[in-house]
Input
Amino acid sequence: MKAKIDLITIWTDDIDKMKDFYNKVLGFKIKNDLGEYVEFENEGVRFAICLRSVVKEYNEEFSKESRGQSFELAFPCQNSKDVDETYKKLISMGATPIHEPKDMPWNQRTAMFSDPDGNIHEIFFSSGVVKKLFIKIFHIERKSTYFWIYLRLARKCHKKAAINLTILHIFLIGY
Output
């Protein structure tokens, strides 16, 4: 097996409602519609929805009721304003509001909504400051230098981001 995800399929009991949502609300163009299975055009990983009853014939595990949030799809936006506008548009078109746009301590603006089956998804814009910091951190070998980076981060962005990264660092590295 190659360690690569080739296809993401969302199982559903209401294919028409989900097809309309992903096509008309989120804007995915339909590549292949076989009635019980719909694949959408997507860059990179293939993306589809499928009636749960199709696979129940093969394995009873698919008959079990799912519990809790099992996955999340995250959609990038062009900027913070785009997050706000996209969220309003999605909600007006039928997405269920979960979390209004909010600036997060890790320099990301996010909002969450759910599809007709209740799967929660995210739209976001990331400024890139945190990404650049992680690249620096993973190329540094000495402990003392980490604290210098955290101090620089605290000056450049929000104090909470520096605190959260320090906690993450301690959790991942152990010191």
User: Anything to note?
Assistant: The helical segments are 15-25, 52-56, 80-92, 129-138, 143-156, 159-173. The longest strand covers residues 96-104. The first helix runs from residue 15 to 25.
